[in-house]
Amino acid sequence: MKQNAAYIMGLNCSAWVLRDQAGLPVGVLTAKHCGLLPSDGNLSTASDGQLRVSLSQPLTVYTGDHFGTPSTTVMTVAGVVTSFYVDPSTTDDLAVGIFDGQDPASVVAIAQSELVPAEQGAALPEGTVAFDAGFPQ
Fold it and tell me: Which of 17, 52, 81, 103 could lock onto 59 through a cystine, CB 3.0 to 4.6 A?
């Protein structure tokens, strides 16, 4: 859990580290409500029609036992998010952060492979905890 539960500095939000087949971090699965909704003002449409995220600082992703200050907590840098995949046409709360140097389509495919298919999710009894992890501050 401590390898994959993550904190995104700059969004101040929790995430789940996505890893490739070799186990290397390639991105994160996080939430649209972490500043990635059109209403937050951080999304704009580029000339190619793709949504872009505009934030004031690099988004460094950290993993470790817990989050604190650099002087009191040893945290490991998992990567730096340089772009996001966000589908504003859906009602889900999912966003995929792509680490610097990674292929966005590959990272999105990894994220999709880790999600429970909608029909399986719909069959879960109400109140089932499918994933419950986050980084306390």
Answer: 81
Angle at 14 (CA atoms; ends 9, 15), nearest 5 degrees:
100
Strands (E), 33-93: 43-45, 51-53, 59-63, 76-86
- pTM value surpassing 0.70: yes
State the Cα–Cα distance between residues 11 and 59, nearest whole angstrom. Answer: 7
As a whole number of Å, the end-to-end CA separation of the chain is 17
- Residue-wise pLDDT for 29-70, tens only, equals 998 888 877 677 777 776 766 666 666 677 899 887 665 555
Q: How far is CA 118 from the centre of its chain?
A: 19
**DSSP states of 14-37 as a string?**
EEEEEE-TTS-EEEEEEETTTT-S
Pairing of strands 25-31, 51-53: unpaired
Which of 43, 40, 32, 50 has the alpha carbon at shortest distance from 94? 32
